[in-house]
Amino acid sequence: MSDGIFKDTMANMKWTDIQNYVDKNAIVLLPLGVIEEHGPHLCLGTDIYIAHIQCTFIKQKLKERGFEVVIAPPFYWGICQSTGSFIGSFKARKETVKALLFDIMASLAEFGFKHVYGINAHGDINHSVALIEAFKEVTEKLRINARYAFAQDIMHHYGLNGDEPYICSIKPTTINVSSSKYPDVHGGDIETATMYKFYPHLTDVKKAKSLPPVELGDDKIMTWLYGGHTKELSPEGYLGAPADFENVNVLSNLQDIAYRISETIIDCL
């Protein structure tokens, strides 16, 4: 993908292009992620690359339904608590993340946009909390339709029920895109396959094929997500089966994600 995470985003447009999107009452997709370690086989920017890829697929689905859509410059200074003990995982304070997101969406509102949807590809618990609080603050103070696209099946862990005006509730997938028996929690088969599909030069395939699967029990998964012991649980910084990446149907996965999120976005307009 030439232009990387700026491809087909506002960053590569002129101000007059942005004005045209405002005039058409376009939906804004805001890619969200972090810069963090993703094992010895993937680059630090994996999450934001994938968030951007997802946004391009969501945009296409919405366009097919007749909606104008524009992708905002990706935001990649999120919170890295779960992988914070690794070199390469950049840390941002919660208040910094919330302030930056508020200012970004305040700018979009000032431009004239009325609908902003956050598309996140990073599962850190504190990161999600910061995003939820940021979108809530924007909704309450800026009076625009700003919503964080969030998985319906984990909302209860965050005290959410899905009908909050700052949340876009995504239904669970009903398809299986991988034959691996090891779930991709971090840097596993699905992330590796997606990066290899779109950014092969950033994917160390030889290394990925050499990595044994890493799986943790539910109790240790929570320890992983809360951070602090990640190196003890997975010294190489991944959780899943990177070597199984060739058995992933990348396009089916992205089409499924795009369909579920785009349908939810339409319901929230």
From TrEMBL:
Cofactor: Zn(2+)
PANTHER family assigned to the protein according to its UniProt record, in alphabetical order: 2-AMINO-5-FORMYLAMINO-6-RIBOSYLAMINOPYRIMIDIN-4(3H)-ONE 5'-MONOPHOSPHATE DEFORMYLASE, 3-DEHYDRO-SCYLLO-INOSOSE HYDROLASE
Gene Ontology biological-process entries: riboflavin biosynthetic process
Signal sequence annotation: none
Superkingdom of the organism of origin: Bacteria
Protein name: Creatininase family protein
InterPro entries: Creatininase-like_sf (IPR024087), Creatininase/forma_Hydrolase (IPR003785)
Pfam families per record: Creatininase
Species per Swiss-Prot/TrEMBL record: Vallitalea pronyensis
Record keywords, A-Z: Hydrolase, Metal-binding, Zinc
Family to which this protein belongs: Belongs to the creatininase superfamily.
Record-level Gene Ontology MF annotations: hydrolase activity, acting on carbon-nitrogen (but not peptide) bonds, in linear amides; metal ion binding
